[in-house]
Specification:
Blueprint (H helix, E strand, L loop, with lengths): L5 H27 L22 H12 L23 H9 L1 H6 L3 H9 L13 H11 L28 H32 L6 H18 L1
Helix pairs in contact: 1-7, 1-8, 2-6
Length: 226
């Protein structure tokens, strides 16, 4: 009985071809995946027109005088100030900002209510702010809340989960590659068995040691491509 290694060469070529096909499949899947959509910058609606107020100047005044105790959309040491002009008459703000303690002592209902609601914290007096300054601050607080742009909401998943707007999920790609890998392994074993049977039918002796080497070579080739 003769020993011939020709079927070894054929098996290697088949393994190489299948591994090459798997590589091309992976490349195709990668190219088919659209790039993640870039999150758009939040869009800000146009400022609401207010009487004699400059919202841009008001923002600077707010940050330097008010931001330590107030936020626009959440309570802090004092109340949230977005839309505050809807809660009080405009003329009420001038004496309140200039000297809130005087209004509390005078028994102004709104001043006393705010004083009691916020743990009787006394607001800093700002006598240096003119009426125009106050109008500018109020114009800034009257600006509508910015709305998030497309791609910043809950539909934009984190990396590695799913692509937004009809993109291919990374999990789908990995699943497809795993399926191709499984098919490749099955085909390798099938080819090895067929070649062994053909060798036996043609009187070619295939030792157990050679079979083990073939299986090891197949696995090494698979690992090389991954």
């Amino acid at each position: 009985m003769k020993k011939v290694g020709n079927h070894n060469s054929i098996s290697r070529k088949i393994v190489f071809s299948l591994a090459l096909m798997l590589t091309f499949s992976f490349t195709s899947f990668s190219q088919a995946t659209p790039p993640a959509a870039t999150a758009a910058a939040p869009t800000t609606a146009a400022p609401v027109a207010t009487t004699g107020g400059d919202a841009v100047a008001g923002k600077a005044l707010f940050n330097s005088n008010c931001a330590a105790c107030h936020k626009l959309d959440a309570k802090a040491t004092g109340p949230a100030l977005r839309g505050v002009t809807a809660r009080h008459a405009r003329d009420w703000f001038y004496p309140w900002i200039a000297n809130s303690s005087a209004m509390i002592k005078a028994g102004d209902p709104d001043a006393v209510k705010i004083f009691n609601e916020y743990n009787k914290s006394v607001m800093t007096a700002f006598p240096q702010l003119s009426k125009q300054d106050v109008d500018n601050i109020l114009a800034y607080t009257d600006e509508p809340k910015p709305t998030p742009g497309p791609g910043t909401g809950p539909t934009a998943g984190p990396p590695g989960t799913a692509a937004s707007d009809g993109g291919i999920s990374n999990n789908v790609i990995l699943g497809a590659l795993a399926l191709v890998m499984l098919m490749l392994v099955v085909m390798l074993f099938f080819v090895n068995n067929v070649l062994t049977k053909v060798a036996k039918q043609n009187g070619i002796e295939v030792s157990e040691r050679e079979k083990e080497c073939q299986s090891g070579e197949h696995l090494q080739k698979i690992n090389f491509w991954f």
